Amino acid sequence: VTLSNAMLAELLARAGTEADGHRRRAYERAAAAALGWEEEVADLLAQGRDPSELPYIGSGLALRLRAWFDDPPEAPDVPPSRRGFLTRAEVRRILDNHPWVALPAGDLQMHTTYSDGKATVAEMALAARQIGRAYIAVTDHSTGQPVPRGMDTDAAARQRTEVLDFTAGLAAAGEPFRVIHGIEMNLSPSGEPALSADERSSFSWVIGSFHSSLQTQADQTSRYIDALRRAGMHALGHPTCRRFGRRPGLVAEWDRVFDTAADAGIAVEINAHPHRQDLPVSLARRAAAAGCLFSIGTDAHDRVELEHFDFGLAIAVAADIPRERIVNFWAAEDFLAWVGAEAAG
Ligand SMILES: [Zn+2]
Question: What is the distance in A from the centroid of ligand 1 to the CA of 186?
Fold first, then answer.
């Protein structure tokens, strides 16, 4: 038996539930970090290296990992909140030598200092360009949710000017890279948008996302359908709202939700954050069968998190989504024409 990082993540999380206090938190952090490790621990051990070189693995946890390799435990039964997550090592194998994943693409969700991000619009843009993105949309939070504080109308207007100035500067320098002014608009638990049609119209790209009543396991189909029909958005952000180890995500009749999104021409997001991976592969496959469009967003809150784009690509590839249905791969002009046409509707 060779233990994969996915199994190690589960064993670490499981060990955390049996520990107390700071040891528990150390296990939980290591379990979450395991999703992002660049290489399989098995390979690292085979090269005679020590697991303590991995993020969030100290000498104690390194011994624990070695002990699991020496005497492999039974494959654990994974609870819903940790089920269906890819590790970065798996992402690499999925993307390796794939025919189109390296083509130019935009990153369609990220946050800046205008809400809870740690970097400015320009810093995020330059970092994204540096790692090969063709364009980005900045999508700070709207008002309407208690945490984090979102952008009010004045801040949004200032940001729009900043985005337009920045993009104009690039264009003047002959740079095709561009920044699109978007927003992650909060949706209430009943599917009501935080912004009016007038407020939405000042943004080129509107993602609608739920951020409250996320632990319920009662059927939420109606909140999705109401939001998709009424909220005036281009994409549904982190659709299930799951978080690794914290919550399994909302429950809905997904085929109805995806049919509604496909009919309305609203993209469903593949949120690429390793701890979200939302949609998961299984649901992304069903959304593809329903005819949905997809948008990949890192949901980056700093420059380093822009690297998570690969998780979104790997989910799309694993779900057999055709590249033409992923709006990130459309040229910026085509993408803007699409959102412009939608916004006018
Ligand atoms: Zn969000």
Answer: 8
Ligand 1 center from residue 211 Cα (angstroms): 6
Cβ atoms of 107 and 332 within 8 Å: the answer is no
62 Cα to the center of ligand 1, angstroms:
34
Determine phi and psi for 309, rounding to 5 degrees.
-50, -35
3-state secondary structure of 267: strand
Distance between CA atoms of 239 and 16, rounded to whole angstroms?
Answer: 28
pTM for this entry: 0.95
Residue 328 confidence (pLDDT) above 50: yes
Nearest 5°: CA angle at 227, between 224 and 230?
A: 145
| Ligand 1 centroid from CA 129, angstroms | 23
Report how far ligand 1's centroid is from the alpha carbon of 271 (Å): 9
Q: For position 115, what pLDDT does the model report?
A: 93
Rounded to the nearest whole angstrom, what is the distance from the C-alpha of residue 136 to the centroid of ligand 1? 17
CA distance 109 to 316: 16
Amino acid identity of 298?
T
238: CA distance to ligand 1 center in Å? Answer: 7
Expressed in angstroms and rounded, the spacing between residue 110 Cα and the centre of ligand 1 is 9
Residue 242 CB partners (closer than 8 Å, separation 6+): 81, 248, 249, 276, 277, 278, 280
CB burial of residue 205 (10 Å; 0-12, 13-18, 19+): buried
Q: Are 98 and 317 in contact (CB under 8 A)?
A: yes
Q: How many Å lie between the centroid of ligand 1 and the Cα of residue 295?
A: 14
| Exposure of 54 in the CB half-sphere (CA atoms within 13 A) | 31
What does the pLDDT look like over 241-266, one tens digit per residue?
999 999 999 999 999 999 999 999 99
Report the alpha-carbon distance of residue 286 to residue 296 in Å, rounded.
Answer: 16
Q: How confident is the model at residue 172 (pLDDT cuts 50, 70, 90)?
A: very high
Give DSSP secondary structure letters for 318-340.
Answer: HTT--GGGBGGGS-HHHHHHHHH
Strand pairing of 135-141 and 178-187?
Answer: parallel
Distance, CA 237 to ligand 1 centroid (Å)? 7
- For the segment 68-79, what is each residue's pLDDT rounded down to a tens digit? 999 999 888 899
